[in-house]
Structures are given as structure tokens and as C-alpha cells.
Amino acid sequence: MNAFAQLSTATLDPVSYRLIESFREALAAPEDAAQQVQRSGLELCTHLLNRYMAPSPRLPARVALAPWQERRAKEMMIAGMAGRLSIAQVAKACALSRSHFSRAFKKNTGVSPRDWLLGARVERAKALLASSPLPIAQISEECGFADQSHFTRTFSRLAGCTPMIWRHAQFSPTGPYP
């Protein structure tokens, strides 16, 4: 059996057959044949690809940050702690969108960038409370809190006591309460 005979006995699905027939119709009407042939050809190719092409294996989306991205993000957040550094700026420095960066950062660290930064601010405040005689209001400002009451609320939530009690506990041999 020759190749033409094999081809003529092959069966096409109805959609492919209809699209191939549209070529013949397009060529019969020469006034707009080029546009019709192009449209039919595109439809046929799309159909054949969708129907007969094996799906490509999808690679799992990379959600975590690369080590350099995590390091860069943490360095930026610590350096800009007292300023008004936005998560969008940090994400841009890591070459990611804000939402992708936030998801990836949480995957790496277990906390959102905002919560990580608050924790870093409280740790910085603890270091200042333990090592300097600065007033609490000034420490809250240097650590990037909006005001002293915001600092006190956040510090109390994360450290379990107010900044004043925590400071006294650092210098008292009996603990935080007299």
C-alpha cells in the first residue's frame, strides 16, 4: 500500500475535517481567500495542538526566596528600620512583585515581612533598653515605631511586658517585679 492510500484511509476528527473543508471553500471565493485561509489555518492549528499535543509537564512554581534574596531583604529592612521603607521597595530590590515576595518571605522565615520587621524592631529596642540610658520615647523613634504608645503595645505583645518593666528586669537581680 502506498503512502497516499494510507493517508486516504486515515480518519480525521469531525472538527479537523470541517476546518480542512473551510480551506476549499475559501479558495473557491478568491476575493477574500487570503484572510479566510489564514483564519482557517489558525483555527486548524489551534485545534490540532489542543487535541493531539501531549501536555508539557509543568514545573512547580518556585515560592521560596533564594538565599541572596532573603539576605538582601533582611539587610534592607534592618537598615531602613527607623525610616519608612515599604515592602514594595524590598520586593523590588529582590526582583519580585510585592505579593510574590511576601509569600516567598513567609515560606522562608515562617512569618510575614511585616511581622519579621516588627520582631527585629523589638529586638533592636531590647538592645537599646539594656545598653543605653535613652528615654523610651527616643528608643521607640529610633526603632521606627510611629509613637511611644505603638511601641509599648507592640513590645508588650511580643516581649510579654512593657519596655519599662523589661528594662528594670535587666538591671534587677530579683526579676522584673520588685
Keyword list:
single chain; 178 residues; mainly alpha; Arc Repressor Mutant, subunit A; 3 domains; 0% strand
Distance between the termini: 103 Å
Question: Which residues form runs of ≥5 with pLDDT under 50?
Answer: none
Number of domains: 3
Would you give the CATH topology of the largest domain?
Answer: Arc Repressor Mutant, subunit A
Mean pLDDT: 82
Give me the Rg, rounded. 33 Å
Compressed to H and E, one letter per element, the order equals HHHHHHHHHH
Major beta-sheet overview: none
CATH architecture of the largest domain: Orthogonal Bundle
- What sort of overall outline do the alpha carbons produce when their principal axes are compared? rod-shaped
How many individual helices?
10
Helix content: 55-70%
Q: Could you name the CATH homologous superfamily of the largest domain?
A: Homeodomain-like
Number of strands: 0
Return the CATH class of the largest domain: Mainly Alpha
Overall SS class: mainly alpha
Task: Report the portion of residues in β strands.
Answer: under 5%
Report on the architecture of this protein.
With 178 residues, the chain is mostly helical. It folds into three domains: 40 residues; 47 residues; 68 residues, Arc Repressor Mutant, subunit A (Orthogonal Bundle), CATH 1.10.10.60. Helices cover 68% and strands 0% of the residues. It is built from ten helices and no strands. The radius of gyration is 33 Å and the shape is rod-shaped.
